[in-house]
Amino acid sequence: MNRFIFCLVVLLQLPLPSFGQTLENVTKLYDDLFSSYRRNIIPMNNHSEPIEISLAFYLLSINSFREIEETLVLTGGLSVIWKDASLSWNPEDYGNTYSLEVDSTDIWIPWIYLINNAKEFEPIGFDSAFRVYINSSGFVQYSPGSILEAKCQTDISKFPLDTQPCLLEFLSWSGHAGTYKLISSFDEVNLDYYTKNSNWEVVTGDTYAQLDPRGYYRFFMRLSLKREPVYYIVMIVLPTMLLSLLNPLVFLLPVESGERISLAMTVLLSYAILFNTCFSINSSIL
Questions:
Q1: Tell me, what's the pLDDT at 129?
Q2: pLDDT average, residue stretch 220-249
Q3: Which stretch of DSSP H or E encloses residue 52?
Q4: Which of 95, 111, 206, 220 could be stapled to 123 by a disulfide with Cβ–Cβ 3.0 to 4.6 Å?
Q5: How far apart, in whole angstroms, are the C-alpha atoms of residue 50 and residue 232?
Q6: How confident is the model at residue 144 (pLDDT cuts 50, 70, 90)?
Q7: pLDDT band with cut points at 50, 70 and 90 for residue 252
Q8: Letter string b/e over residues 158-172, b meaning 16 or more CB atoms within 10 A of that residue's CB
Q9: Please, what is the angle between helix 238-246 and helix 260-281, to 10°?
Q10: Residues 6 or more apart in contact with residue 135 via CB below 8 angstroms
Q11: Cα separation, 151 vs 73, whole angstroms
């Protein structure tokens, strides 16, 4: 099934031959398709079987990871593919027009929600008008994107050499297993358009779909993020180790010098300045 979906996605993204098509052909096709189309009705020919919705996740960037709030902020997009039989046509009747691009407000689309959202609970891409690609067989590709904030449990016990896992859960909120069947198009997160983050490295990124005990299909995107430790080692670990080495040197000074208390107070003040600097640099860690 995954190979079939992969081939379908590739075919949808390839330019198809369009010999002789004109603006009049495209206009006529649009008018014929949408003259009696009802975007509020789920396109299910057989209501005894759920409509299959294939999902893939495209990660664009890791914006921030707020450990104290246990919130991951990222920019990403979904590739959503399904079949709408009422949007199929014979290309030869319309000047060999094999595909049509329309606004997402013209057709029925499945609303996909991020369950462990840390802000407004809205469908992905709800506040933007993304274009929809329709092919002559009735397959529809909708690719909404957004800045997502997800709640993720954190463990900083190994800071700054830690790796943080994060699981994003997506769901078609009002559609149970009898209506919608979510399928993962790929086994991994797509990183073709990913912009690297200087603080976090994406170690692994998996995607999968499964049926939960409540009777709903869920789509999961699991990330494993490794912290880049060099900055924190230079700014926190090394100065702390240096001050720790200076502290015992107080007892090497002769008593007659009278500088033991002065050196001890200087080291103590250095600690205070270091911690204050670290807190101002990254208040989410300290």
A1: 80
A2: 87
A3: strand 51-66
A4: 111
A5: 51
A6: very high
A7: confident
A8: ebbeeebebbbbbbb
A9: 170
A10: 11, 12, 16, 98, 99, 141
A11: 9
CA 104, 105, 110: angle at the middle one, nearest 5?
65
Closest CA to 206 of 222, 193, 225: 222
Which token pair is 243? Answer: 């001050």
Q: Residue 203 and residue 198: Cα distance in Å, rounded?
A: 14
pTM to 2 decimal places: 0.80
Structure-block tokens of residue 7? 């081939």
CATH of 2-228 given 2.40.50.40, 1.10.10.10, 3.30.70.100, 2.70.170.10: 2.70.170.10
Taking the C-alpha atoms of residue 222 and residue 72, their distance in angstroms, rounded to an integer, is: 12
Give rounded-to-5 percent helix, strand, coil for the chain.
Answer: 30, 35, 40
Domain boundaries defined on the chain? 2-228, 231-281
